Automatic annotation (TrEMBL):
The chain crosses the membrane at residues 21-45. Gene3D superfamilies: 3.40.50.1460. GO terms for biological process: proteolysis. It comes from Candidatus Magnetoglobus multicellularis str. Araruama. Keywords: Membrane, Transmembrane, Transmembrane helix. It comes from the Bacteria. Signal peptide: none annotated. This is Peptidase C14 caspase domain-containing protein.
Amino acid sequence: MFGKTQTKNLRSLSQQIISNIRKYISLTLFSIITALGAASLSWIVALSAVHATSFEIKDLHANRVGAYQESYALLIGVQDYTGYWQDLDNVPEEIHQIESILMQEHFHLNHLMNPTGQVLKEQIKAFFQKEDRQTKMRLLLFFQVMVIPTKKSRSLFDPN
């Protein structure tokens, strides 16, 4: 389980990511996420639309930087690998830890474990294009997967 410091750091990181991504969001983001498909790393992508009044978003200095009405998260975990790739036993536990934190923050959660490339693309697309959601919301996409660094590219992704 995360301690108070890690939880605070996760929230701070999410707020920083929200701020940065709001500046650059476009359809390119979906292309990047799709290209990473079964990417092997743990990372968070958070998106936010502002102008709501239900929940405030504050930075590390308690300055109001936005607001939202609803929060949605898609938690993706890949633990089963083929060939020379070693399975990751800790993925379900780590997904559960993130889930616990997000539930405290009133997120609506969706899970995707060990998806095929096609299922991954379909679910990410559906997550971002869901029509019945409010425009005043934040979206969080979390990947828990594996990365192996190389000298040339700094990372090598599982092609499956």
